[in-house]
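Format notes (please read before filing issues)

Several people have asked whether sequences and structure tokens are stored in separate files. They are not. Every record keeps both together, in the order shown below: the sequence lines, then the token lines. Line labels are part of the format and must not be stripped during preprocessing.
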Amino acid sequence: MSGEKTEKPTAKRYQDAREKGQVAKSADFNGAVALMAAAWGMSYAGPYAVSTLYGQMKYTFGNLLSSSLALKPLSTDNFNSLMSSTIQSAVWLMLPLLGVVAVAGVLSNLVQVRPLFSIQAIFPKLDKINPLSGFKRFWSTRSLVEVGKALLKMAIIGNTGYLIINNHLQELMTLGAVEVPVAWMTIIKVVGEIAQWSCILFLVAGFIDWRYQAWEFEKQLRMSRQDIKDERRNSDGDPMMKGRIRQMGVKMAKTRQLALVPTADVVITNPTHYAIALKYDPDIAPAPVVVAKGKDLFAQKIKEVAREHNVPMVENKPLARSLYPIVELEAMIPPELFVAVAEVLAYVFSTNKGRRLAAQKRSAEHAKKKQRPNGEPNA
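Then the structure lines:
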């Protein structure tokens, strides 16, 4: 069951596919937008383009006709010049329309996939030129869907054209009996109506195809539960390795705490559940500092080290329970516990053992400060 592709793609899965140039995109939507842009451009620039081309053609064929009537031989250079000027006029008139179509195509792509540049999509893929892979793609479900969409588009164009022509059939039947400008206006009106409705229907079909491509793309990217676990492991690291590193960190921290227990002035115990080692040095901090603290087994280890180094231990259950959860390591005790801790320290320092240990610690620290940086004593 873990191998079935039943889970939605993760954000990383989408990002990886996007970096490879794999996105949900509909060519039909792009074509519909480009067709609509072309129809819009023709509706605005069409009359000007037709009149300009009409004038250019009239000038060209007028010159050709005058040369023919004058019984003058038409040279190749003259003919080429006339035709070149006509073609140039047609090209310059078509450039704005082509520009509008190109901009519409770019915008339609941006709407679907957002700005995207993928180098991996440029490199050729061997499976694209493999005949066996091509044969499989030819008979795939996707190919059948594309064929069905092509047939549907042909049906849309055919039915739209048929309905509009049938609606204007009487006007079209009388084109032979009217003047040429009137006939042209009728044809332009019918063709424009066909183009308008075709654009609308194509845009709707393109939008539907875009959403279908998005659904199909998500289906291709679906993941199994094992895929999600592997991705999470690769992204966050191996949980076993992370756990091992965490254990090593905890072990090192506990070792460091145990090394600081001999420097403590007192260890406050629960007595079995908690152990908090406090050190008070007015030259370092204005209040006692927690140098080690532990619970259960580690608390027993702290007390064991304290016994080995003759660090006084005082049993004070309320104070131990208060200190353990609220005071972090190497942090001063909070003001609300000053009085309780001061009483404990005063008791420790008042005993002979406490005074002797405090004197020994002061002597050791004084000697340590007198040492040189390399560890040798001053002369």
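For reference, the curators noted about this record: The chain has three domains: 1-12+124-237, 24-115, 246-370. The chain is about 70% helix and 5% strand.
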